Amino acid sequence: MPDIKHSLAIKAAPERIYPLISTATGFAQWWAADVTEADAAGAVELGFFNRATVYRLNRLRMAPPHEAEWLCSSGKEWSGTKLWFALTPNQDGTLVRFTHADWKDETDYFVSCTTVWGELMFRLKSAAEGQPRGPLFSRNGQAY
User: Fold this and answer.
1) Which of 2, 40, 70, 100 is the most exposed place for a label (fewest CB within 10 A)?
2) Confidence of residue 102 (pLDDT cuts 50, 70, 90)
3) The listed CATH number (3.30.530.20, 3.40.50.12710, 3.30.70.20, 3.40.50.300) that belongs to domain 4-128
4) CA-to-CA distance for 115 and 106, rounded, in angstroms?
């Protein structure tokens, strides 16, 4: 099963980055404007293209402030995949390692998502470093 992987140095402590990768409010700062908390267990839903596509993320493992893992239970080719963020402090801030794991196949959509995740990582970096660029996707799901 193919995985998408990225690694990025961020000049911020894990405590500043963790809320951005573990909450609906955090995701709304860099990923998508249409993000809602779906239930009391902390699941979130991200809507795209006027909610024609909805990615539901369920918490798998949260280890503040160093790790957040989500299970995707809906969305084009995303169902059953996992999002894993690992934060390792270093002298300059934090090394963020990201994996979108367990894709069924390396499709054209998978390749497209690899590119999108690259841009998302830089938006996460900007938000964590106090220079937010806003979410990549607007309320109607279009990329800004």
Assistant:
1) 40
2) very high
3) 3.30.530.20
4) 13
